[in-house]
Design goal:
By secondary structure, the chain is of the alpha+beta class. The protein is 39% helix and 15% strand. The protein folds into three domains: 178 residues, no CATH class; 79 residues, no CATH class; 124 residues, Aminopeptidase (3-Layer(aba) Sandwich). The protein has a six-stranded mixed β-sheet with strand order 1-2-11-12-14-13. A three-stranded antiparallel β-sheet has the order 4-3-10, with no helix packed on it. Bound molecules: coenzyme A.
Length: 410
């Protein structure tokens, strides 16, 4: 009778022994609770994702670049050769996809001693069994294979992103990929869409007669005198003011956000019977993400919006949404005046109604400079964006995350 993965690894039934064998510094808390379940659920033979040729088979959906393909194939073969690595890969896969993904996954140790230079892709291997499962789920819904391939292309993009920073392939965005595999994210053309509850602390009203919008801040939010959320970039202004919002049968009264991405201190009032509330926190929306996959051609973005408007009613009629939302460094209102009007970032930004959110410049530094430079004068100024940002910051300006929404049906 075939021995199971666990029977082959009797010596490692104790997680401490396994961690010791792999030279892991510590054991994340989350690994303990479901360890007995993982042992209990061990397959009859080595899992198929650790068999030779597996990466090749699933590459019909992954479309890995040459380098990423050979790194993952080598990692699979290295894991398959060691029983301690095999068992850990099995356990981590189960933790991510059969239990609720643990909160401590960001701090899971890399098995450096056992994996060597392939260590940063260890957890990527633990994602692989989900690839055919996702393709099957998409197939059942009739979702075109092109969408599956596009959605999964993110794996290759993040493997490349890691290499740009660390010089070798790796993948640490395990929480992010739990979205793809749980069908909580689809890439449609240039952009990705994640059905979510709208998180903006705003109230959007539409005038019934002509469709004009008035956007109010929720009440009780502190804004700096220039209309940013107080505390942006960790800066608190002594002259900050607090927003008000009141609604009764006759009137709606509050601090408007005129679309410039800043809140206005001046309180205005509109007649309740003439306006309808069309978007507020908690409403269903499609959150947009922009994968780092070359330029963000404006026409492709518009095409992608249209695709999303067709895709969800056709393939995911259970997903209701009032519009699109985005929360990103790309929606920093200052970019709208620092970059030329015909740049892709500005054209993308102008599709959105902008509003201020609490945030900072860390995502911008990460995406534009690969991290916050210790000394701004030494930061790379190879692209126009880098140069205008360096100038802006050197002149005392600041950058931040911004947010916006699009209500396509209005
Ligand atoms: C979003 C993205 C595709 C926009 O790039 P784009 O289509 O080239 O944008 P634009 O046309 O507006 O670019 C204007 C200028 O800024 C430069 N630029 C744009 N994004 C840049 C970036 N992330 N880093 C450095 N320079 C950048 C362009 O190269 C161009 O300068 P150039 O004329 O000297 O070449 C790009 O920033 C990117 O890939 N970012 C990573 C993904 C991301 O940030 N997603 C959002 C996460 S919330």
């Amino acid at each position: 009778m075939a021995r199971t993965l666990c029977q082959n690894n009797d010596g490692f039934r104790d997680l401490n022994v396994l961690a010791g064998s792999l030279g892991l510094g510590g054991i994340p808390k989350s690994w303990h609770a479901s360890w007995p379940n993982s042992l209990h659920a061990c397959p009859q033979a080595n899992p198929s994702f650790l068999k030779p040729g597996y990466v090749d088979r699933i590459n019909i959906w992954l479309h890995l670049s040459k380098d990423a393909y050979s790194t993952l194939a080598k990692a699979v073969s290295r894991i398959a050769k060691r029983s301690d690595l095999r068992l850990l890969a099995w356990h981590c896969h189960r933790l991510m996809f059969e239990e609720a993904i643990p909160e401590d996954f960001y701090s899971w140790p890399m098995p450096d001693a056992a994996m060597g230079e392939l260590s940063p892709v260890f957890y990527a291997v633990a994602l692989l069994p989900e690839v055919p499962k996702l393709a099957a789920k998409h197939g059942k819904r009739g979702i075109p294979a092109e969408v599956t391939v596009n959605t999964l292309k993110d794996i290759d993009l993040w493997l490349c992103n890691y290499k740009e920073k660390h010089g070798r392939k790796g993948l640490v965005e395990l929480g992010w990929f739990s979205n793809h595999f749980a069908e909580k994210l689809y890439r449609l053309g240039r952009l990705q869409y994640e059905p979510q509850a709208f998180g903006g602390r705003i109230k959007v009203f539409r005038r019934i007669s002509d469709g004009a919008l008035t956007v109010f801040s929720e009440g009780g939010i502190r804004f700096s005198p220039d209309g940013e959320v107080d505390g942006t970039n960790g800066v608190f202004n002594p002259n900050a003011w607090e927003s008000v919002f009141e609604q009764n049968k006759k009137t709606v009264r509050g601090n408007p956000i005129p679309g410039s991405g800043r809140a206005s201190h001046e309180v205005i009032e509109i007649a309740a019977e003439e306006w309808a509330l069309v978007l507020s926190a908690g409403d269903a929306i499609l959150n947009i993400h922009i994968p780092a996959d070359g330029k963000m051609d404006y026409t492709l973005c518009l095409e992608s919006f249209s695709k999303a408007l067709e895709f969800f009613p056709m393939y995911r009629p259970d997903v209701q949404f009032k519009g699109f939302a985005c929360h990103s460094w790309l929606l920093d209102p200052d970019l709208g005046r620092l970059l030329p009007a015909d740049s892709n970032i500005v054209r993308f930004q102008r599709e959105f109604y902008l509003y201020p959110v609490l945030g900072d410049d860390s995502q911008m530094f990460e995406r534009v400079f690969g991290g916050k430079p210790a000394d701004l004068s030494g930061a790379p100024g190879e692209t126009l964006l880098q140069r205008v940002i360096i100038n802006h910051l050197a002149g005392g300006g600041r950058m931040r995350t911004g947010a916006g929404f699009i209500l396509p049906s209005l």
